[in-house]
Amino acid sequence: MFVQLLVLGVISILPWGALGSSAEEKLLVLTVATEETDGFKRFQRSAQCFNYKVKVLGLGEEWHGEGQKVRLLKTALEQYADNEDQIILFTESYNDVFSAGPTELVKKFRQAKSKVVFAAEAVAYPERRLEPKYPAVIEGKRFLGSGAFIGYAPYLHKLVADWDGADEDSDQLYYTKIFLDPVKREKINITLDHRSRIFQSLHGSEGDVVMKFENGRVRARNIAYDTLPVLVHGNGPTKLLMNYMGNYIPRVWTFETGCVVCDEGLRSLSGFKTDDSYPLVVIGIFIEQPTPFTSEFFKRLVNLQYPKKRIQLYIANHEPHHQRHVEKFLKERSTEYNLVKYIAPEETSNAADARNAGM
Questions:
Q1: Which pTM does this prediction carry?
Q2: Do residues 281 and 313 make contact, with C-beta atoms less than 8 angstroms apart?
Q3: Backbone φ/ψ region at 265: left (φ over 0), alpha (ψ -120 to 50), beta
Q4: Tens digit of each residue's pLDDT (9 = 90 or more) over 105-123
Q5: pLDDT band at 8 (very low <50, low <70, confident <90, very high)
Q6: How many CA atoms lie within 13 A of 68 on its CB side?
Q7: Element spanning 44, H or E
Q8: Helix (H, G, I), strand (E, B) or coil at 100
């Protein structure tokens, strides 16, 4: 019998002397993470799935603000400033997952025929007043997103060379002003990934993106432009959607394999000789909208191989349609558990309050 434990991972970096000469092997991913959060580990897992070479910046530092990313990137690029063959992908780690590998990434970058390619977004941020200054586009998203960009190292070095802002300043505003300056844009040779061939920014594009299941893996597909982005970026208020997609992409759950990561970090409980000696487990169940297979969920809950007298349940049901499912479960099974707390639809205000109350 096993339980899930939280295990922190480490991204291993290969020495450059071991690299070959192909374009993919010249690619380096730089990312910022001051803490090893769940989002960081999700990003790490997706990078390892495709054998990306990743260097993490700022790990262990105190977080001050978005400008910190530019400062860290500026320092990291110093050693690559004269390496014209070096391709650098910069991305945020907490809300990103890779959907495809380095070969496809480098190919699409080269097809863009620019030295630097930024993600494109549906919303001009952080200053909407700059929207009229953006060049018009025939098709695709029009506005720069700073969450992910790729380029040749010397040109990225030029991009951040003039940064002298504070850690609390906006990185996106800094890059936006460079892009909106025609002289600087041409000098650095910057373009945007308007049709999401490389980067998929989710904010403002939630309805454009579906998941494509294929041959034991899952990736995002942009149905508005019929493209298959390499990197999915959960910017703005799309963190829940990113969490949902991250449950599948790239090989977390597939039709062929089922859940690939569910057995990670397991710890044997064979040392507990009696049911009363098992750790007490609290399970929070939040039904926030009409949800298919609710009855099947409760059947699986009953079938968990863990002493029920060492399980407490906190059930917050916001959906009247499912009240009969919950009440049936409570009538048949509630006495088997250590404790059951049920919050009925008429007692719940919103999902956030229900989760806070559960905690």
A1: 0.80
A2: no
A3: left
A4: 999 999 999 999 999 999 9
A5: very low
A6: 15
A7: helix 38-49
A8: coil
249 sits in which H/E element: none
- Strand 96-98 and strand 116-121: the pairing is unpaired
What value does the CA radius of gyration of the chain take, rounded to a whole number of Å?
24
**Burial (CB count <10 Å: 0-12, 13-18, 19+), residue 337:** middle
DSSP string computed for 118-170: EEEESS--S-GGGGGGSPP-SSS--EEEEEEEEEEHHHHHHHHTT----TTS-
As a dihedral over the C-alpha atoms of residue 74, residue 80, residue 85, residue 87, rounded to 10 degrees, the angle is: -40
Contact between 314 and 287 (Cβ < 8 Å): no
Residue with tokens 């998929």: 200
Tell me the CATH class for 2-254. alpha beta
Kindly state the tokens that stand for 225: 């432009």
One DSSP character per residue, 253-267 reads EETTTEESSTTTTEE
CB neighbour class for 15 (10 Å; exposed up to 12, middle 13-18, buried from 19): exposed
Query: What is the domain partition of the chain in residue ranges?
Result: 2-254, 272-358
How many residues belong to the chain?
359
Convert the pLDDT of each residue in 268-322 to its tens digit. 888 898 999 999 999 999 999 899 899 999 999 999 999 999 999 999 999 999 9
Number of H helices, E strands in the chain: 10, 18
